[in-house]
Design a protein that fits this description.
It contains 14 helices and 17 strands. Helix 2 packs antiparallel against helix 3, helix 3 runs antiparallel to helix 4 and helix 4 runs antiparallel to helix 6. The protein is 38% helix and 22% strand. Strand 16 and strand 17 form a beta hairpin. It is of the alpha/beta class. The protein has 2 domains: 229 residues, Acetylglutamate kinase-like (Carbamate kinase); 141 residues, VC0802-like (2-Layer Sandwich). An 8-stranded mixed β-sheet has the order 3-5-2-1-8-10-11-9, sandwiched between helices. A 6-stranded antiparallel β-sheet has the order 13-14-12-15-17-16. It has a 3-stranded mixed β-sheet with strand order 4-6-7. It is globular. The structure holds aspartic acid and magnesium ion (MG).
């Protein structure tokens, strides 16, 4: 069996769904378990509906829901299945998903929606897309079983950003998938969605469909996991900022995970872990260019040392705590990180000296509480409008001239912090945000645009 995951843009409308279905059809002999995201932008709208509901704007929330309903009904209509008996069933499924949504919006009587209800409402996107694709596949003659991901992807109770329970998932998945496959050509299920042990609805956090695919792949011992997206695999840099980027043919699990953590948006950062546990190859492919080579993510023994890609986080803050008494007091680090943990703020980079600790955090996080508490243990400053750039690759630390070439590429820029990952996978630094794009382009020129380019790129 293989797992094929399709992201929002690969299932945005009837035309992209048809393209996706053709890709699946070409692999039926490998018994695909298809995992889909919600149609493009639908999850954003569902979060908006919840936000409007919180503000008491129920009419506006319901209007947004009605527009979503129209969009999904329109996709079904575009498949021209009027004569097929299954049309009534898909219409009914869509109607019931929206009536549940309306009920959740209307019936909370001024109270805030519970986290479980929020998760249920937000999961509508994947329920809709997976049901519509199953309908369209069957219409095309591909016998397809729709399967509820909540039976398989068992998680803890953290409704909106749950952690999977690997043992629970592994225990039942094979049996459930094999049963679904009985007399069928394909099985389709939802990304992003899970359930707690007691059956409460949960979600794996934004962008979590990649993670679902990998969890399911691990649990059924898939031969491969394919992540179908709308770009040609993982690239040497973000093509929206850097010209002349190249596709990367092969990456190790560790490199791909590091890139995702360091800001590359092509994969959810936790995706590689389950695949790596079972040594299952992961391919990042483009559904708009199905014949393309994409990127293979494999065991590190198949990967050469060296720089693979340059990633960035565009808007970060640098927090520094300075305390003269730090040098002879023990437990200062502990105190500082306890404060971050208490406020649920996650730290990216870290560097320290005798008298200070410097960390970076993404600007989307609210750091007011952290800063107030840090002031009690030392003088604390927050630098805004910074960007973080990471050079990622296996054993890059052994590369001759890495530092001199890197710093030459940014000779006129201020560097606020340097951090070398302890796994020798990344060299990261913090710069002023307005200079980021220029530095990325210079670094790309230095490492990827020289004559005799490397054979790992296209
Ligand atoms: N639909 C979800 C999101 O937009 C999950 C995903 O697409 O991966 O975050
Ligand atoms: Mg995604």
């Amino acid at each position: 069996m293989i797992v094929m995951k399709f992201g929002g843009t690969s299932v945005a409308d009837a035309a992209s769904m048809s393209r996706t279905i053709s890709i699946v059809e070409s692999k039926l002999s490998q018994r695909p378990v298809v995992v889909v995201s919600a149609c493009a932008k639908v999850t954003d709208t569902l979060y908006e509906i919840i936000e409007l509901d919180h503000q008491g704007k129920k009419e506006e929330a319901l209007e947004l829901a009605a527009a979503l309903r129209k969009r999904h009904e329109g996709i079904v209509a575009d498949f021209n299945g009027e004569k097929d008996a299954s049309l009534a069933a898909i219409k009914e499924t869509i109607a019931s998903i929206f009536s549940r949504m309306e009920k959740l919006v209307k019936d909370n009587n001024g109270k805030l929606m519970s986290l479980a209800d929020k998760a249920l409402l937000i999961s509508s996107g994947e329920y809709l897309s997976s049901n519509i694709i199953a309908y369209a596949m069957n219409l095309k003659g591909i016998k397809t079983q729709w399967m509820d991901a909540r039976q398989i992807v068992i998680t803890n109770n953290d409704n909106l950003k749950a952690s999977p329970l690997m043992d629970e998932i592994s225990k039942n998945a094979k049996g459930i998938v094999n049963k679904a496959y009985k007399n069928m050509d394909a099985v389709i299920t939802q990304g992003f969605i899970g359930a707690s042990v007691t059956g409460e609805p949960t979600l794996l956090g934004r962008g979590g469909s990649d993670y679902s695919a990998s969890l399911i792949g691990m649990a059924i011992d898939a031969d491969r996991i394919e992540i179908w997206t709308d770009v040609d695999g993982v690239r040497t840099a973000d093509p929206r900022i850097v010209n002349n980027t190249r596709g990367i043919k092969k990456l190790s699990y560790e490199e791909a995970a590091e890139l995702a953590r360091m800001g590359a948006k092509v994969l959810h950062p936790l995706t590689l872990e389950p695949a790596q546990m079972k040594n299952i190859p992961v391919y990042v492919l483009n559904s708009m260019n199905a014949g393309g080579e994409g990127t293979a993510i494999l065991n590190r023994s198949c990967i050469f040392d060296g720089i693979k890609s340059i990633s960035y986080k565009e808007n970060i803050r640098v927090i520094t705590v300075y305390s003269l008494s730090m040098s002879d007091a023990s437990g200062f680090m502990h105190q500082v990180f306890e404060i971050f943990s208490k406020h649920n703020v996650s730290v990216d980079l870290l560097s320290s000296s005798e008298a200070s600790i410097t960390t970076t955090v993404e600007a989307t996080q609210d750091v007011a509480g952290v800063v107030a508490d840090l002031q009690k243990v030392g003088t604390t400053t927050v630098d805004r409008d910074k960007a973080q750039i990471s050079i990622v690759g296996k054993n890059i630390i052994g590369l001759r001239g890495l530092l001199s070439e890197t710093f030459n590429a940014m000779i006129d820029s201020k560097i606020y912090m340097i951090s070398q990952g302890s796994t020798f996978l990344n060299l990261s630094f913090v710069v002023d945000r307005p200079e980021m794009a220029e530095i990325l382009r210079n670094l790309h020129k230095t490492f990827f645009e020289k004559e005799n380019g490397n054979e790992n790129t296209d």
